[in-house]
Amino acid sequence: MSIDFLALANPGVPGLHPYQPGKPVEELERELGISHSVKLASNENPLGPGPKAIAAIQKALPELARYPDANGFALKTALAGKLKVNTDQLILGNGSNELIDLLFHTFVGSQQEVVYSQYTFIVYALATQAHGAKAVEVPAVDCGHDLDAMAAAITPATRLVCITNPNNPTGTFLGKQEVKAFMERVPAHVLVVLDEAYTEYVGEDERLPSIDWLNEYPNLIVSRTFSKAYGLAGLRVGYMVCHPELVAVLNRVREPFNCNSLALAAAEAALNDDAYLAEAVALNNQGMAMYEAFFNERGLKYIPSRGNFITLDLQRDAGPVYQALLREGVIVRPIAGYGLPTCLRISIGLEAENQRCIEALKKVLD
Ligand SMILES: *Cc1c(COP(=O)(O)O)cnc(C)c1O
């Protein structure tokens, strides 16, 4: 007996395709029979987890038979102190991706519209489609968000607007005034998620005062993660900061034990590891300068980035270059799925990894 499972699925599901992650190192090495390849494809922190996080994980191991703290008291307390918010303004997730999904589960249905930019984090498009909502994709300007056009795209049916800043996969950045002026234009029935997964890489003077804005805009939701600058992508932990009543609604839908105990312990420790964070940011700045210098020297086109990655525009189909780089043992990220078929996104790695990538690019492009 054969069953058409797709026909049984919810209305948005037949239109979906699985998320395409960066190629794992093990997979490439298995396929090509090579070793010592480098992965610069998923915006991971090349330093590995920090020493304080590792120590906290080791300390938490004997308690693994117990369920984690469903309310994440210790991590929320640490975050509240750092961000100067109340613990009831925080919700923790299995990566910020889970919280994005939670926002959609809670607030977005087939009657609603979701506004997001062309060339932004693909998870917003996937979640919109999965919930059968109407996607309103606003054309980008200079590969970044056009906030004027996004504000103009809001209708009475709009429930959620998604802004990624710095943006992934382009690395573009919106300044304080622009985002503040946008928030002024958004009606109260529209929730705005400001995804700041890369905010730690932005200089403190330029970073948006997004947490301060929560007092003015109860419809604003700030999303952050421990997956990038804090180096804990494998543990899956992120958080959102927003109005306490909004948190209370989300908590009705949230799985009770969505953050595991190792993630909670490691994130709390990582939050206090200023030395590790500073090292990660400094390394990123150096690596970014290396790539920019190389691209400029070669006359290669790229999108100036404020994240921990840089997008190279080859101005021709990037697929063959991606494949050729794989054969050199260098994994970068093709972003044709984001509508950028001539581009490759390169995550900033350790100095030797960046050097390796640059050498491979020279070889492949000659
Ligand atoms: C990497 C990334 C995230 C983080 O996802 P996690 O689920 O927290 O690992 C969120 N938003 C954007 C734009 C990202 O690039």
TrEMBL record:
List residues, modification N6-(pyridoxal phosphate)lysine: K228
- Copy the pathway line from the protein's UniProt record: Amino-acid biosynthesis; L-histidine biosynthesis; L-histidine from 5-phospho-alpha-D-ribose 1-diphosphate: step 7/9
> Keyword Signal: yes or no?
no
Q: Which GO terms describe its biological process?
A: L-histidine biosynthetic process
Q: Which cofactor does it need?
A: pyridoxal 5'-phosphate
In its UniProt record, a GO molecular function of this protein is:
pyridoxal phosphate binding
Q: Which InterPro entries match?
A: Aminotrans_II_pyridoxalP_BS, Aminotransferase_I/II_large, HisP_aminotrans, HistidinolP_aminotransfase, PyrdxlP-dep_Trfase, PyrdxlP-dep_Trfase_major, PyrdxlP-dep_Trfase_small
This protein's source sits in the domain of life called Bacteria
Domain Aminotransferase class I/classII large span(s) in chain numbering: 37-361
Q: EC no.?
A: 2.6.1.9
Concerning Pfam families, the annotation shows: Aminotran_1_2
Keyword Ribosomal protein attached: no
Q: Which UniProt keywords apply?
A: Amino-acid biosynthesis, Aminotransferase, Histidine biosynthesis, Pyridoxal phosphate, Transferase
Which reaction(s) are listed as its catalytic activity? L-histidinol phosphate + 2-oxoglutarate = 3-(imidazol-4-yl)-2-oxopropyl phosphate + L-glutamate
Q: Which family does it belong to?
A: Belongs to the class-II pyridoxal-phosphate-dependent aminotransferase family. Histidinol-phosphate aminotransferase subfamily.
Subunit note: Homodimer.
Q: What name is this protein filed under?
A: Histidinol-phosphate aminotransferase
Q: Origin organism of this chain?
A: Oceanimonas doudoroffii
Q: What is the lineage of its organism?
A: Bacteria, Pseudomonadati, Pseudomonadota, Gammaproteobacteria, Aeromonadales
Q: Which gene encodes it?
A: hisC
